[in-house]
């Protein structure tokens, strides 16, 4: 009986030592996993920060592009307006030049008629 108890006590001590070893191994594994979880959390936070920065840069880029497009459209409109004004000015100058040419032609015809009349009068007088 004593031998059986001694044998069982030996088995219990072995089991106890095995449990302590297993607990120690599990605790070490738990600590290792906890460190990995912290590293993964830090990595995730960094990646989320990078994503946020990229999104912000993308938004700024889109806003800048939109602003540049609006500025270009405004400049195009200003240039189109300036071209339209130049066309109108050119048209008015052409009309003015045409009127001056017609006026000069009339003056030349009048002078030619006057010269012709003077020539006729000179022949008539002469």
TrEMBL record:
Residues 2-121 form a coiled coil. Keywords: Coiled coil. This is Uncharacterized protein. It comes from marine sediment metagenome.
């Amino acid at each position: 009986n004593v031998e059986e108890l001694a044998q069982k006590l030996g088995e219990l001590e072995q089991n106890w030592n095995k449990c302590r070893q297993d607990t120690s191994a599990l605790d070490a594994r738990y600590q290792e996993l906890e460190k990995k979880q912290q590293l993964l959390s830090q990595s995730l936070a960094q990646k989320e920060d990078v994503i946020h920065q990229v999104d912000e840069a993308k938004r700024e880029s889109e806003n800048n592009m939109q602003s540049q497009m609006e500025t270009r459209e405004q400049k195009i409109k200003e240039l189109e307006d300036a071209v339209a004004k130049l066309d109108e000015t050119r048209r008015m100058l052409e009309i003015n030049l045409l009127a001056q040419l017609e006026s000069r032609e009339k003056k030349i015809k009048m002078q030619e008629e006057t010269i012709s009349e003077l020539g006729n009068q000179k022949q008539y007088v002469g």
